[in-house]
């Protein structure tokens, strides 16, 4: 009996392995509100990046245009962070679409096209977490989510809408740059963001916050 209890506790407190309360489909009002708040905050961050950093970075990378896709991970971050935080189907989609709508409303150079991008990016993350039936949300899944978000966005949209004149060699390099960005900025960055929020205590009612509070180093 004690062995079973110890095993259950160990699994539930391992980073990324604690399930959402009530199971993945038991959505709560606090889940919706928190994802919306996170999406708005990251949407404002999108606007700041679009306004102050995107064009200077694009110019700096103009010598090799496919490398400009190294910036893609910035826009994938809400989907990964939302999925890691709430751990329910649709969490990545909700957080990403709120951020995309805020970015559109505040003004950007792509207009309503950011909604198409947001949808594809979020679907990539949703596929990643669904493969493990919303039971695993660790760093590896965050990286996989960033990877699939980049693949969906680039192969289904950006290749044809933004870089149709690229040769296939350049398109593949463009894809590779996007995947690297998705892994590093959205995957690793999203993972670190949620861990940082957990340490503050503001997400104590969500699985990452519960994992932090129940971690062996914090037990009395």
Automatic annotation (TrEMBL):
According to the lineage, what is the superkingdom? Bacteria
- Offer one Pfam family short name for this entry: ABC_cobalt
Segments carrying the region annotation (Disordered) are 1-22
Q: Which UniProt keywords apply?
A: Membrane, Transmembrane, Transmembrane helix
Q: Where are the transmembrane segments?
A: 25-49, 70-90, 139-160, 172-194
Q: What is this protein called?
A: ABC transporter permease
- Compositionally biased tracts (Low complexity): 1-14
């Amino acid at each position: 009996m004690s062995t079973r209890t110890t095993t259950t506790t160990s699994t539930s407190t391992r980073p990324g392995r604690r399930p959402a309360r009530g199971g993945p489909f038991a959505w709560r009002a606090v889940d919706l509100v928190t994802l919306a708040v996170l999406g708005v905050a990251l949407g404002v961050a999108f606007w700041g990046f679009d306004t102050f950093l995107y064009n200077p970075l694009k110019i700096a990378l103009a010598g090799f245009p496919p490398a400009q896709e190294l910036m893609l991970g910035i826009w994938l971050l809400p989907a990964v962070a939302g999925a890691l935080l709430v751990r329910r189907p649709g969490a990545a989609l909700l957080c990403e679409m709120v951020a995309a709508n805020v970015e559109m409303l505040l003004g950007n150079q792509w207009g309503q096209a950011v909604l198409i991008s947001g949808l594809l990016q979020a679907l990539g993350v949703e596929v990643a977490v669904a493969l493990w039936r919303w039971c695993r949300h660790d760093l590896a899944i965050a990286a996989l989510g960033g990877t699939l978000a980049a693949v969906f966005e680039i192969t289904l949209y950006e290749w044809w809408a933004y870089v149709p004149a690229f040769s296939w060699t350049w398109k593949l390099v463009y894809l590779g740059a996007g995947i690297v960005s998705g892994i590093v900025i959205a995957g690793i960055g999203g993972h670190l963001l949620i861990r940082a929020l957990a340490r503050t205590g503001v997400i104590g009612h969500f699985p990452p916050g519960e994992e932090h509070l129940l971690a062996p180093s914090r037990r009395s």
